[in-house]
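User: My instructor asked us to take a sequence, write out its structure as tokens, and then describe one feature of it. I'm not sure where to start. Here is the sequence I was given:
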Amino acid sequence: MPIGAFAQRSGLTSSALRFYADSGLLPPAEVDPVSGYRYYSTDQVARATALRQLRELAMPLAAVEAVLGSGADEASRLLDEHVAKVVEDAAAVQQKAAVIKSALGNAPGLPIAVVKGPVLADAVEQVLTAAAYEPGMPALAGLRIEAGHEAVALTATDRYRLSTRTLVPTEPPSQTWAGTVNGDELRAAVAASRRSPLVRLEAVSNGIWFRVADREDRHCRLLPEEFPDYRLMLASLGEVTTRATVSKDLLLRALEEHPGERIGLHVADHGVSVMSADDGRPDIPLPATATGQALHIWFELTTLYPAVSTAIGPDVLLDLRGHDQPVTIRSADRGDLTTLAMPIKPDHSA
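Assistant: Let's start with the prediction itself. The structure tokens for your sequence are:
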């Protein structure tokens, strides 16, 4: 078929086809030696369509050639590499644009608090394990920072698990402030400040600055979406009816060794047992100190395991309010990191 007809079939313009022919990516099936007209075959439509699609992804010519000349597995790998680079570049552009916007007008920032760099980095990593990327709820991918007159609270939630940690600043905040910070940018910002003795948090209209004396200041954008009203949920929690203290390592080991996606806990005077949804498998008893009412409670492994693993210290304290109420999981001797985990119904339905 002539180049015009092939252009319609492939979605490429005639000029693009001439360019790809000259570059060797898509040479015509035949060239008239007298007129120089280029002709293409039906068998070339698939390659031309794939070439067009790859170029629509802003893939360089060399990478396009590598993908077209590779098998399915290698081509898939090359595509993943390209997409990852595009996403990384886009994130860098967003970050630079946010920095430029924050500098426009040269408006002074609002001092929030001064905290220790390594303490802040650890706290952000611990709390952000409860964040989630969920379509339609972008605020769940962020971390809520709330500065009061005496402390700075960090909070994240995926709706089934909520983690919060309170930091005591080296300099008390001069005024209150609250905002939901982009989680990905926050991870990068605090990682860079881990070796900084002190980090000054300074709010601007569209974000927050992490300023350090010995390194480049880092800027994180604020998420405009409303963060869930977790304080209302905390205020609505019932009284603790059962309390247990158990070794963090032993509990994690039992969760790792027990099969299944759903895990049960039986809490009684003699201790804590990890149960399986399969009645044929034996329970795993754990030494523990327990008080209050005996209780059976069930969890998704993906909710309970990270809640326990991020706890601080060798022992975890479980505050339970019944089989259908959130359980509070925190260090037995340090209460500055607290996680709430939602159980599932006893019949194992979500």
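For the description part of your assignment, you could build on this observation: The two ends are 58 Å apart (CA to CA). Try explaining in your own words what that tells you about the chain.
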